[in-house]
Amino acid sequence: MDSRNHSLADFNKVEDADIMQRARLFKEFSDDLVEKRHAQYRRVSLDGSAPVMKVKDQYTGEVREMVYLASNDYLNLTKHPRTIAAGKAALEKYGSGAGSVPLLGGTLDLHIELEQKVAKFKGCESAIIYTSGFGSNCGTLLSMLGENDIAILDMLVHASIIDGCKNTNQKFFRHNDMSSLEHVLSKVKDKYRTKLIVVDGVYSMDGDIAQLDRIVELARAYGAYVMVDEAHASGVIGETGRGTPQHFNIEGKVDIVAGTFSKALGAVGGFIAAKGELVELLHFYSRPYMFSTAMTPQSAGSLIAAMEVIEDEPQLREDLWRNITYFRENLLNLGFNLGNSQTAIFPIIIGDDLKVKEISRRLHEMDIYVNPVVYPAVPKKLARIRMSIMSAHTKEHLDKALNALEIVGKEYNII
Length: 415
What we know:
Blueprint: H1 19-35, E1 44-45, E2 52-56, E3 63-68, H2 81-94, H3 102-106, H4 109-121, E4 126-130, H5 133-144, E5 150-154, H6 159-164, E6 169-173, H7 178-188, E7 195-200, H8 212-222, E8 225-229, H9 244-247, E9 256-260, E10 270-274, H10 276-285, H11 287-290, H12 297-312, H13 315-334, E11 345-349, H14 353-365, E12 368-369, E13 371-373, E14 384-388, H15 395-411
Parallel strand pairs: 3-12, 5-6, 5-7, 7-8, 8-9
Antiparallel strand pairs: 1-2, 2-3, 4-10, 9-10, 11-14, 13-14
Helix pairs in contact: 2-12, 4-12, 7-8, 13-15
């Protein structure tokens, strides 16, 4: 099979093929990606998230030291001394696991402390924590919305949000387009029990920021609620890193603030911050919370420390934004198309799946670690290289990446 003639979409459903036949067909596709060195997936790190990461080359078996531009560890908190020390202390005190689901026997005082910190950090009354960000979004939405309700979604919201809305009505509005949102709101007014607008604070593929202040205004005008997913905003935007509501000076005015602990906070898990009565309902009706063992003590301890570091060490965010500004200016000067990126996420939009795969291969060979994003993850005309910046990247790291990008940009006629 020639993988250049296919995409992941072709194997989502294969007519007249059962699951094992479908798997065999996909394996042929996957093997050809490897043969062409287009399989820049599941690359194995030998030392974890860092500005320069040791990677076992999947093609040669050699160890490469690569400038790592594919991490969501924006503030490098995965390896901060305080988060490591707090995680170790929690592990030694509580053990390796919580032992039960949180509703029954798995809630630790450490979990309560983390929930209180999250609520305060997000300017909300209360919070609930989950073992994954996907689970927090999906489980919360499934528990809140039914056949008499409607979710009004930005067309680029995260997959966890889309999956969470499968049991309710859905309407999509054009990405970050307030006239499109208002049009949808006007069509659904007075037709549903609950109307919930759901957006990302920062969009993971484009790096742009939701117009949350306008969204809240429109929601109030049309009797809707607002939920914002702060996965890529927490720790990154806002005067003190509290996220999109702080960025727009509307803290306390967003009905549901969701997020993950796996990006700038440097661990794993998710949260929902909202009014106390809604959080109490989620304790009993959100299935990922009810039926998953509680967060590990080590994660909870590290996350409490991470939130304290964000408050105590603003220079980490300042370093991040210095790097963002430097990298963006140089990419734009070279002539790359960055779309509407405003944050630490940099999409180089190429619009050709094969070029994206080839450029990713070349960058891998030049020890630059980026993510290829092709159809169906994005439309074919928006195929891209996705990069993200961390606070601990040095100018030398970024210059090495910029030099490599300039070379491949000229080789493949995209600048």
